[in-house]
Amino acid sequence: MMLRKTLLALSISALLTACSSSNNAAVDSAADAAQAAKVDIQVTQAKRALDERLACNNPSNVQTACSLRMYQVMVESFIDADSTADYGTGYGTSHHNGDIAGITASLDYIKSLGMNAVWLTPIFKSTPRDGQDQWADRLDATGYFTSDYFSIDPKFGTLEQARELVEQAHAKGMYVFFDGVFGHHKGNVAASPNGLKPTTGKKQGNAGFEAQYPQDLEFYKEVAAYWINELKIDGWRLDQAYQVPLDSWVEIRTAVKEASASQTYSLNGETVNPLGYMVGEIWRGASDISAQGYGKEDSPALTSAFDFPMRYSMVQTFAVEENGSGKRYATNLDNGFVAHMAYPEHAMPNLMLGNHDLLRFGDLLQRGVIASPNSPEYWDRHKAAISFMAAYSGPITLYYGDEIGDQVEDFVSKLDPCSGDSGMCDDHVARSSAKIEGLATTVGGEITVLNKQQADLKDYVSSLMAMRAAHPALYNGSRTHIHSDKDIYIDRKDAGNDHVLYLVNTKGSNTRITIAADAIGSQGDLLNLLENETITLADGNYIINLPAYTAAFYQISSPADQGPLISTAAVSLTGTGDLADCTKADADGFGPMGQNIWIRGTYAGGDGFMATPDSHKFRYKGDDLYQVVVKHPTATVFTFKFATQSWSSEFAVENSDAVTVGQQQSMTRAVGPGTESSIVLPEAGSYVYSFKINGFGDAGTMMVSQCK
Q: Of the chain's two ends, which shows fewer C-beta atoms within 10 Å, N or C?
């Protein structure tokens, strides 16, 4: 297959100034002294078409859900405004006394951030079992193993308080989503108003039981519709959505749609139906998210799921992920979008920086020994990461506290192996007490006053969200990837007459960028959407100063009719040389590796890196060369490593970069999670995976090539 490519030219100079400097005069001076390196940038038209086909990347498919800016609240660790509704225990470092009244009191603050929706972790009743231990008590505080799906937990508040929360949010123009746990329960479940109860299926740890489908379908359909009819909520976040079969999701989604169509309320003075949005949590790779949540294009199950693959690309680039792997090149952000190829056209991925099961971004910065709150870089990296969310087509979710760079003081010392009285697992530490400007965190406590850095980040987030709300190109626009390299990432976003250029500097060097007007399809001024700045066209180029860890959004005031420059340059998926030979005979023995090695990854049948199928097992070909030919029945995308069954040897593309099909690349050891590479195969066919190990057995060269 030959792919047409965009041919874009940029000149990028790394500046010789201190990191995080924002002095434009210094930037200009340093740029003049630096030698500019001209780079030819090539981006496939096919990738642009891929981006346009997804629900929120297609301006002709306008949906309200694409514009969602959700604010996630972990109820037990949020604001305590009702002393009669307290759990008093829970996982993590918070006060464990948060309640519904505290969320209602925070609505003005949430709206001031520019968010237009609130997602609450479960607030349904969890009834203690006789003799349950402290871990079960803590789990009850999370709400994720429910006993009564039709009652509000009194330790969170009352039904009337829940009703007041929903009504006040709607009056302020915000949607409300409850957390639906439809795949497991506590076991001691109360009957529904229609007399239904879920079956007691397979035990899930020591916490409860898995739901059984199709036996429990009618029960959960009743739950899903009940709260829309009772409180007029706008839909559901769906916990561990892979536990529910696709055909059951179709029926539950239909029940939500029908209930939403039967109700109305006033949103900002306008009469509307509840939104009926549902977003699944499938904490896995893109292929699994597609197979276990979205379903097929001709038979959609869920229409939205959290974009975990992109989230990991994001934190790997701007910080590190939970295992400490990160500090990746800016190209890694574009690699994250490659995962979207695994999704069907109706997919509406929802991007988050963090949530209650993940570490806070601030703690990741500290885990990676990158920056602490007393460093300007800590706050600048927050801004850069959240700016990337603001430029993302589709719904986004902000975890409470990330808007003020929240973190847990002395984070690392508070970790233990998930045992003992403290109960500090990684994700539990992230559940810190909410700090809402102008409110006391607990009843009778001191009113929260943000420090200068917190207030500055909050104001920046508010500006980002207001800009995003005003520009459909950002939340519902097609994406043309203009350029990415070690430091700089650039996209153009388009929706109707709205055209926005997004740039972000992911690293610590101030940079001056010269962009050819043809490269971005512009023939007039670029207008900065966050600052009072205009970039004028001079000699066919734009010159943009981009300080370290800084993002910029520019309105393309006069877009060229042809859009970004498209060349007729082409690239083949078939390489050359021994690594591209699909017909080599096997040699005797295991070769220098001394054992079997497989492609292990998130491909269909790969069981999330756990499987070692014969179809993906390398054969030794002699001369230190290993190969396996894999037949891919459809276009696909997945992440992978070359690894032994025991994981004693693991390899990926150098720097865990993406595979460029048809080209030889350096291969190095890639030990531990988060060090895998991604690959996109744009068409079905047989592909040979090859690697040649060096004399030390710790590196080599590799290639993936389509067999002719």
A: C
Per-residue model confidence (pLDDT) at position 8: 42
Residue with tokens 């195969």: 681
CA atoms within 13 A on the CB side of 279: 29
As a whole number of angstroms, the distance between CA 146 and CA 139 comes to 10
Q: Decide: helix, strand or coil at residue 218.
A: helix
Among candidate residues 110, 248, 236, the one with its CA nearest the CA of residue 168:
110
pLDDT, one tens digit per residue, over 304-323 is 999 999 999 999 999 999 88
Structure tokens given for 341: 């190829």
Q: H helices of 551-654, where? A: none
Q: Is residue 391 within 8 Å of 467, Cβ to Cβ?
A: no
- Long-range contacts: 273-277, Cβ < 8 Å, 24+? 274/228, 274/232, 274/233, 274/234, 274/235, 275/64, 275/65, 275/175, 275/234, 275/235, 276/228, 276/234, 276/235, 277/65, 277/68, 277/175, 277/177, 277/234, 277/235, 277/236, 277/304, 277/395
DSSP 402: G
CA 375 to chain centre: 26
| Token pair for 646 | 């025991």
Closest by Cα among 57, 46, 45, 39 to 564: 45
Give Cβ neighbours of residue 198 (< 8 Å, ≥ 6 apart). Answer: 185, 189, 211, 212, 215, 216, 219, 220
Q: Give the confidence band of 427 by pLDDT, cuts at 50, 70, 90.
A: low
Which domains can be identified in the chain, with CATH numbers? 2-59+477-570 (2.60.40.1180), 65-305+346-355+396-402+417-447 (3.20.20.80), 573-706 (2.60.40.3620)
Statement: the pTM of the whole predicted model exceeds 0.90 = no
Poorest-pLDDT segment among 37-51, 242-256, 392-406, 672-686:
37-51
Question: Rounded distance, CA 292 to CA 286, Å?
Answer: 10
Tens digits of residue pLDDT in 315-359: 999 999 988 888 889 988 988 888 888 899 999 999 999 999 999
Instruction: Name the percent of the chain lying above pLDDT 90.
Output: 71
Residues ≥6 apart with Cβ < 8 Å to 68: 116, 117, 175, 277, 350, 395, 396
Average pLDDT over residues 86-98: 91
Angle at 148 between CA 147 and CA 153, to 5 degrees: 95
Could you give the CA distance from residue 467 to residue 670 in angstroms, rounded to a whole number?
A: 40
Per-residue model confidence as pLDDT tens digits over 20-64: 333 333 333 333 333 233 333 333 444 454 567 799 998 888 899
- The chain-wide mean pLDDT, for the chain, equals 88
> Is 334 exposed, middle or buried, given 0-12, 13-18 or 19+ CB atoms closer than 10 A?
buried
Please tell me the distance from the alpha carbon of residue 255 to that of residue 397, in angstroms, as a whole number: 25
Q: Mean pLDDT across the stretch 693-702?
A: 94
Q: Are 424 and 92 in contact (CB under 8 A)?
A: yes
Map residue 126 onto helix, strand or coil.
Answer: coil
- Alpha helices by DSSP H, 509-637: 517-520
Residue in the structure block whose two tokens are 């990158």: 370
| C-alpha–C-alpha distance, residues 488 and 701, integer Å | 27
Q: How far is CA 379 from CA 279, 319, 355, 361, 403, in A?
A: 30, 12, 19, 11, 10
- Average pLDDT, integer, range 390-402: 98
Q: Which of 280, 256, 423 is nearest to 348 (CA)?
A: 280
Place of tokens 């920056």: 371
Closest to 222 in 3D by CA, of 185, 258, 254, 192: 192
What is the chain's percent helix, strand, coil content, to nearest 5? 30, 25, 45
